[in-house]
Sequence to fold (275 residues):
Amino acid sequence: MKTDLHCHSHFSDGKHSPSFLIKRAEENKITHLAITDHDFMTATTERNSKVQIINGVEISCNWQNREIHVVGIGIDHKNHILKSMLFSQQASRHKRAGKINELLVKAGIDGLVAYLDALKCVSVTRSHVADFLVLSGASKNRQQAFNRFLGKGGRAYVPATWVSLSEANHAISASGGIAVLAHPSRYKLNRSNFNKLIDSFKQAGGSAIEVSYGGIHPNTKRTLEETALKKNLFMSAGSDFHDANAHWTDLGKFPEISNFAKENVIWRHPKWHFS
Fold:
């Protein structure tokens, strides 16, 4: 079994179609693939694929005034609780984009709405806005776009409104899925707050954490594996793939979960039902 349980299509901030992702997964000998777009459940119509496609989603949450991401694996895309929550998240995204546009127009930068309307994405993210700022010549690159406009203190900064960890985990569980804390090492937390996040996530109904993903340091990976064992959490892994031109990452390109930790791999979870 070779899994990749975290990647994105052009329906959120990825660059490619679900069909492209599935073909890429086949080329990379992946057996199980979850497309986990931001606050959107991507339905695939691929047939006769050698890859087992698993319904997934990545939900943006608020925890202690920080944006935290929770991946849902094996969800039922027809579940009304999850659908309702994601509809609310989408509304928040579009409202935020509208406010950002107003601030950009005041700064003399117009055209964002037309740019976003031309995209295939359903989930509008600040990454899309950053791309627009680069293409329009307002910023040299994405990092400058966030520093000057989109990040805290920027000219077009608008805070996000997300659901809580509890709301996200409840919706995932109600839909029959497994709630996974995404890329825990990327939140820039000290050890104390890191442990608080893990405990809060588990208390909110989460049952797994990602312990391996693209670009992770071996020491960080081992720490996450040891934390998962200590906290009795299952372990997931995924590339967080967005773009084939980003050569430092690819579908399935991340370190395997260590042998000493494999007793807690996600496919041993009671809700895992994929052959």
The chain has eight helices and eight strands.
